Amino acid sequence: MSPTPTLSRREVLAAASAVGLLRCAARSHLKPTAPARSAVVLGAGLAGLVAAFELMKSGFDVHVLETNAQPGGRIRTIRDPFPDGLYVEAGATHVVGDPDLLALFSELNVGLFEPARRRWPKRVLFKRGQRSVVNAGEAIPEEDPPLREDEASLDFNGMLEKYFGTAKDHDPRNPDWSGPEFSRLDGLTAEQLLLERGASEGFRQMVESSFCPSGSLKTMSGLALMREALNLQLEIGWDSVKRVVGGADTLPRALAQRLGERVILGATARRIEQGERGATVTFTRKGEMHQLSARHIVCALPGTLVPQLEMDPVLPAAQLQAFSSINAVSVVQVYAATKTRYWNARGESGNAETDLPVGLIRDESALQEATAGILGAHPNGAESRRLSSLADEVRHREVIDAMERVHPGLEDQLLSVHSVCWDNEPTIRGAFAWLGVGQLTQQQPLLRRPHGAIVFAGDYNSHRPGFMHGALASARRVVAEVVTREAMLKAQ
Ligand SMILES: Cc1cc2nc3c(=O)[nH]c(=O)nc-3n(C[C@H](O)[C@H](O)[C@H](O)COP(=O)(O)OP(=O)(O)OC[C@H]3O[C@@H](n4cnc5c(N)ncnc54)[C@H](O)[C@@H]3O)c2cc1C
């Protein structure tokens, strides 16, 4: 995959010369003064870009340091290895109808569309070593334990309300989960919570496979699962899941374009040294050390990477421990580019449910016009972790062999194979955070707590880890923190 250019040549040169000036300041050992209304943002994922954009609009002098050659972080549209102009979304794909997120798309003039998938007459299943094809609409024998009658009589929202309460009673966007009852629920596993509330085995299995981010009710906090369920209720109420016209990375590219030369790509933050009224960030770029000083530092790196940043003064031990104990979901996607969508000629959509280690298989090209196609494999968390540890060729061979069994003919049609292992990405380290027992009430407040001039943004410390609207909400929160701190410093 090669980086998508996001800044014009002029902008890149301007940014480089700005950095050059700062390098001179660093060399002369002058402690750069931090002017009022200045901020450095670390990381140009959605949280960092939105924070910088909002601060810029409020009149702050802002710079964004991004280690990668392109902005976007976990919003990543991959185009290069694929034929016929096809692309895949390796990260954020679906835009949930969060009003603030939709407003951002509209402000940036980035288009959204409602995906309308064509219906195909045949459905492919691969279970217990057997490929079967059933007519669309034909009932498939249930494998999971059935829901109890009182559960089966409810719609999905009704089931969520029955066991988790309603989003009207406790808005999941409200960060306050304090109090003895919430602490008690956070001390339970998700399984214990559901057993305590009388959920059937069928319901527990449905939750585990459909919206338990850790993939196991035994590891996740009961309260965190409840927050997931309350979020789902809100999202069902918004009733719209859209896709981004031209690929999801259009959003970070639009933000980076608005920020222009303020975004410095290829810049890796290494150290933050705080003074009385600001801080200095040391970063490396093209093998050289540079420094930038500002009143406020917005740290919008993935939470898993915060412990790698050198800080002076260091983070308090409890806060460092909170960052060090973030759990991350493992996600691997393997994509097979094909000469044609030969599965369509058989009346099949290309999507297949399997009990093979490769998990669900999808036609990633279904919404795009082209002759060529792309099949994607989406293994579950445990399998993703194993596949991530294999060499590319070994992983690809294993997945293509499995896909061949599900969609015979693949070998003859195969053009190329590409995979993304989010665990192995040194600038990300894991797809998204999930909360273990006790972490929502004990860890989360520490992940949001400012450390002097440093505030922390990212989906991991929001009400919705693993979603763009979570990253957005965290960015808005830290902007409010910066504005308040700026006013406080001015008043002193
Ligand atoms: C497989 C997958 C599927 C997803 N699907 C969806 C979906 O369908 N819908 C949805 O809403 N969300 C989805 N998400 C989640 C969404 O992508 C994230 O919530 C969001 O992009 C997170 O943004 P962020 O800014 O918090 O973090 P990130 O995007 O991780 O940004 C952090 C940035 O920091 C940079 N960085 C790291 N170290 C340094 C350093 N030392 N110096 C400078 N920069 C550094 C990184 O390169 C990165 O650009 C998905 C994510 C994944 C992985």
Strand residues, percent: 15-25%
| Shape summary | globular
Bound molecules: flavin-adenine dinucleotide
Residue share in helix: 25-40%
Give me the CATH architecture of the largest domain, please: 3-Layer(bba) Sandwich
Describe the structure.
This protein is an alpha/beta fold and 492 residues long. It folds into 3 domains: 9-74 and 248-315 and 451-491, FAD/NAD(P)-binding domain, CATH 3.50.50.60; 81-120 and 328-424, Alpha-Beta Complex (Polyamine Oxidase, Chain A, domain 2), CATH 3.90.660; 145-239. Helices cover 35% and strands 22% of the residues. The protein contains 17 helices and 23 strands. The protein has helices at residues 9-27, 46-57, 99-107, 149-152, 156-164, 180-186, 190-196, 201-211, 222-238, 250-259, 317-324, 381-388, 392-406, 410-413, 439-442, 444-448, 468-491; strands at 38-42, 61-66, 77-78, 88-89, 95-96, 112-113, 122-127, 130-135, 241-244, 263-265, 267-274, 279-285, 288-294, 296-299, 310-312, 327-329, 332-338, 348-354, 360-363, 373-378, 414-421, 432-434, 454-456. The strands form 7 sheets. It has a 5-stranded parallel sheet with strand order 10-2-1-14-23, with helices on both faces. Strands 13-12-11-15 form a 4-stranded mixed sheet. A 4-stranded antiparallel sheet has the order 19-20-17-21. A hairpin with a 2-residue loop joins strand 12 (279-285) and strand 13. Helix 2 runs parallel beside helix 10, helix 2 crosses helix 17 and helix 5 packs antiparallel against helix 9 (222-238). The radius of gyration is 24 Å and the shape is globular. The termini are far apart. Residues 1-32 have low confidence and may be disordered. Residues 42-48, 65-68, 73-75, 91-94, 96, 268-269, 300-302, 305, 331, 422, 427-428, 431-432, 458-459, 466-468, 470-471 line the site of flavin-adenine dinucleotide (FAD).
